[in-house]
Amino acid sequence: MSSTVAAGNRLGSIDIVRGAVMVLMAIDHVRVYSGLPAGGPTPAIFFTRWVTHFCAPAFVFLGGTSAFLYGRRHHDVSRFLLTRGAWLVLLELTLIRVAWTFNLDFAHDLLAGVIWVIGWSMILMAALVRLPVSAVGMTGLAIIAGHNAIGPSIVRVVSESPDSAISELLKILYVGFSAGPIAWGAQGGSFMVLYSIVPWIGVMAAGYAFGSIMVVELGRRRRLCLAIGLFAIALFLVLRGFNLYGDPRPWSGASLLAFLNTTKYPASFSFLLMTLGPMIALLPFLDATDGKVARWLTVFGRVPFFFYVLHIPLIHLLAIVVSKVRLGEVSPWLFANHPMGNPPAPDGYTWSLGLLYAVWAVAIVLLYFACRRFAALKARRSDWWLSYL
Q: 0.70 exceeded by the pTM?
């Protein structure tokens, strides 16, 4: 075996992890249409939501790693990040918004979701990648670890002048939807920021620098990843356990649920340690995995954005079928402005947790066949547009 990863080789571990997070992500997106609340009130519902917390951090972090690996094979990494980032932002505000809502109410509702923040992070990374890799990594770590220190000051500025231009900008950059939507347009438009740019640009920058670890000899890679991952987990346990730093919501009592209930919007230092640490520790041990489940997940991991674009309208359509079967009609609630801004589910609509998982399983099976065909197409052809899906 070569001591390093050749520039043109794919890392199987990255595809497996990306596939796993896409499959987990779909659980929460089925939940959106189930009417079940996010994170409670029962432990089963809490962990149904909690397990999906690993998805966005892994997806954004490995997006940075993939950018590093792309740069080893191509000289136009800045241009690629800029154009792909702009494309993702456009799709978030158009096609993906329609997939979530099945309505065309653009004048009143827009959502800045995970694809939005990945797009803007790529646009910013187009400039950052011109710096040395170590500088990109240090910038990312500083943002991840330091943003909670300045967070209260930013929140105070927004709360003191909620309708000012600077407050609206800070909602996009950091505060997000917790301070309310951004008003826009003459018709009373509402722009809801689910994923703020900070700290996610830091996560992608750290992931980019992490790419330099993923190309070293396998034994050293495993030792480095295990050390980094375990350190992150240990730091999370200490900081969160003693409420020292890293999350704006201290926990109390002896509840495991309260301990694990870290802040995702914006993603706190504790949240990112809790989710990225295990993923980094596990990552290099997946390269030699060759079982049926690993091959199945790799299909999704090779075409993650195709999966993302396809899975939302598919889940939405399945929810419509479930509504027709259970209620005898298609509930108008399914055409509200999901996943945020929608009213509570109507009486008698809410699914059981078992039904949620059954619909999720059906969606994953259907997506597998579609993703397998598209992955085979990408393997056969090298058209430029395929790199944008």
A: yes
